[in-house]
């Protein structure tokens, strides 16, 4: 029994019109629209809901203003759902009811976030990915690597929150749902995955000296490094602002590109994270710039010039041509 991953997230935002354009430019499909709510879908059926801040029935927020209000994790079966319901029945805000025609259970985690579980509605997808030729293995033969003119996110891969008590919050996810530690910043940050075998992290909890609670970012999985770049360039051409990237994380090995999100926090394209098993031994890191990013482009790349923001564009000659 283990949680399979993120099935749905719900933002509360103050400008649905802007969010409608933002998430469609991001590469999500708009599935339904109402005056107080938008529902988008990733490639594998993972849903992204953007509700109006004053929509009745929304869970309370961890912070004021636009932010993430709810994370719905998927499980495999009704039997799993029943076991998890028993595990959280005495936790604050426990709910056991119906949502979108199916049973959904949940509670409030120690950081004030609404956590829900349901039998997963995501579906398997087969996508073509760019194989990487290395010195030892060259699987891409007689074939050019792909170039993407935009991104089509496969799913919400992980969420990252600022927490007031990283030990209490990480213990909650471990004790109630069986999350496993991947790596950590001792007493500061916890990288956790849903099950012993899986991607480096589905959840990252970060405790600031101020004790601030809230959303840091939501990360969307794309096919490969080329889609990180192609998606980021497209999103930049659409006029959305980069926070940091493209770049590469040393801790998870993933390539990333972060943008500012009108629905709250940051939003990330990422690919090529480490895959772990039960044999993995968690590591400890001291937080710092070189631990967060092996390398990164400050301000992003311009979608038109393909160069760092505010850099001089090409003049038509070959880049290696000497004057």
UniProtKB/TrEMBL annotation:
CDD domains: ED_TypeI_classII_C, VOC. Residues 302-312 have a biased composition (Basic and acidic residues). It holds the Pfam family Glyoxalase. Residues 155-272 form the VOC domain. Signal peptide: none annotated. This is VOC family protein. It comes from the Bacteria. InterPro entries: Glyas_Bleomycin-R_OHBP_Dase, Glyas_Fos-R_dOase_dom, VOC_core. PROSITE patterns: VOC. Residues 302-323 are annotated as: Disordered.
């Amino acid at each position: 029994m283990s949680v399979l991953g993120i099935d749905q997230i719900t933002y509360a935002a103050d400008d649905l019109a802007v969010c409608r354009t933002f998430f469609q430019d991001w590469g999500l499909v708009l599935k339904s629209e109402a005056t107080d709510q938008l529902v988008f879908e990733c490639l594998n059926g993972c849903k992204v809901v953007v509700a109006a801040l004053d929509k009745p029935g929304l869970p309370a927020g961890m912070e004021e203003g636009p932010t993430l209000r709810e994370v719905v994790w998927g499980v495999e079966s009704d039997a799993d759902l029943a076991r998890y319901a028993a595990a959280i029945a005495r936790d604050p805000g426990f709910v056991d009811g119906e949502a979108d025609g199916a049973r959904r259970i949940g509670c409030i985690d120690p950081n004030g976030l609404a956590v829900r579980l349901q039998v997963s509605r995501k579906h398997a997808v087969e996508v073509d990915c760019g194989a990487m030729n290395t010195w030892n293995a060259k699987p891409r033969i007689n074939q050019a690597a792909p170039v993407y003119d935009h991104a089509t996110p496969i799913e919400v891969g992980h969420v990252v929150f600022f927490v007031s008590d990283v030990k209490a919050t990480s213990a909650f996810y471990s004790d109630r749902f069986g999350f496993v530690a991947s790596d950590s910043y001792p007493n500061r940050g916890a990288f956790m995955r849903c099950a012993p075998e899986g991607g480096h992290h589905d959840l990252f909890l970060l405790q600031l000296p101020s004790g601030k609670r809230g959303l840091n970012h939501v990360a969307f999985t794309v096919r490969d490094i080329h889609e990180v770049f192609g998606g980021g360039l497209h999103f930049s051409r659409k006029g959305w602002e980069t926070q940091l990237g493209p770049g590469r994380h040393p801790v998870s090995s993933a390539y990333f590109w972060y943008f500012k999100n009108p629905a709250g926090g940051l939003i990330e394209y990422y690919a090529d994270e480490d895959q772990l098993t039960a044999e993995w031994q968690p590591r400890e890191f001291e937080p710092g710039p070189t631990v967060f990013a092996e390398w990164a482009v400050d301000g992003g790349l311009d979608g038109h010039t393909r160069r760092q923001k505010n850099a001089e564009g090409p003049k038509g000659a070959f880049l290696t041509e000497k004057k």
